[in-house]
Amino acid sequence: MIIALLAGFLFAIFGIYLLGRALSDYKKAVASLEWPGVEGRLTDLRLWGKRNVDGEMQDAEKLIVAYEYEFKGSQYKGSSVAFYTLVYPETVEFARSHSANGDVTIYCNPKAPVESVLVPGTRKDKPYSDCLLGAFGMIVGVVIAALGFLGVIG
Q1: Is the domain of 38 the same as that of 113?
Q2: Same structural domain for residues 42 and 114?
Q3: How many CA atoms lie within 13 A of 144 on its CB side?
Q4: What value does the CA radius of gyration of the chain take, rounded to a whole number of Å?
Q5: Which of 22, 18, 33 is nearest to 127 (CA)?
């Protein structure tokens, strides 16, 4: 009973954390559609994480970027592609359409220019997916904790 209650409680806390991050990222993603675009330069662009692509194991799973830009006379650096996680094939498509040391449009928060992103907005096909995942984790944790408390499990 105690183990199930504790596990459920910890799972719920983790779900609350994920939901909080997802809601924060969602708000930033929506706001980023209004942010000004400034010209910058990609200083790093790498794919990593092996994936079977057309019968061959290639780095394609994850994407790392770094960029530099100037806003109102100050220099900034950033590393955010989007306010959601790009996954294959998005990673490869982004890497094919951009190059390290190439020019890129960077969208930066005019109120906090250190906050920037290369792809503004939410994921087009699943704008609430991260929020739903966090809420699901929280609900599962609460259910496990409640069942543990009632002695149904554990």
Answers
A1: yes
A2: yes
A3: 20
A4: 20
A5: 22
Same-domain pairing of 108 and 43: yes
Same domain, 96 and 111: yes
Number of independent structural domains in the chain: 2
How far is C-alpha 88 from the chain's CA centre? Answer: 14
- 3 state SS of 114: strand
48 in Cβ contact with 141 (< 8 Å): no
Can you name the residues that pair with 68 across neighbouring β-strands?
Answer: 41, 77
pLDDT in tens, the chain (154 residues): 799 999 999 999 999 999 999 999 999 999 999 999 999 999 999 999 999 989 999 999 999 999 999 999 999 999 999 999 898 999 999 999 999 899 999 999 999 999 999 999 999 999 999 999 999 999 999 999 999 999 999 7
The pTM score is 0.85
Q: Tokens 């183990």: give the residue.
A: 3
Cα angle, residue 119 at apex, residues 115 and 122 outer, rounded to 5°: 95
Q: CA 97, CA 114: separation in Å to the nearest integer?
A: 24
Residue 34 CA, chain-centre distance (Å), reads: 19
